[in-house]
Amino acid sequence: QVQLVESGGGLVQTGGSLRLSCAASGRTFSTSAMAWFRQAPGKERRFVATISWRGANTVYVDSVKGRFTISRDNARNTVYLQMNSLKPEDTAVYYCAASRGRFATTTYNDYDYWGQGTQVTVSS
User: Fold this and answer.
1) Mapped to the 3 state alphabet, what secondary structure does the chain carry?
2) What is the pLDDT of residues 43-64, one digit of tens each?
């Protein structure tokens, strides 16, 4: 069992930066692939970034490549999403997710545990 708590969301202007954190409890964090998804109002929850269990492999959706960086600290049971050069279209609720598997995956159904989400709003 893994419990996830996100933090770090907020209101930022276009071009600004935020760093999201996801603190995990449970013994399986260090062997779980982790990911960030986001859900804009009226839209489906969509993949943003994923990282493998040791952090060696990462995958990003095309729209955030070069602007967002996912990382993890297994000693702290925490995964991060550094978001730079933010755009209004990045506005969404951001969710942290944990997989039962070790390998980075972009597939929604591969993630079994979810946080409650943190709001990110980018003003134009």
Assistant:
1) CCEEEEECCEEEECCCCEEEEEEEECCCHHHCCEEEEEECCCCCCEEEEEECCCCCCEEECHHHCCCEEEEEECCCCEEEEEECCCCHHHCEEEEEEEECCCCCCCCHHHEEEECCCEEEEEEC
2) 999 999 999 999 999 999 999 9
Contact 18, 83 (CB under 8 A): yes
CA distance 4 to 6: 7
pLDDT band at 34 (very low <50, low <70, confident <90, very high): very high
Beta bridge pairs of residue 112: none
Whether 51 and 74 have beta carbons less than 8 Å apart is answered as no
CA 101 – CA 33 distance, rounded (Å) = 6
Rounded to whole angstroms, the Cα distance separating 20 from 97 reads: 13
> Integer distance in angstroms from the first to the last C-alpha of the chain?
40
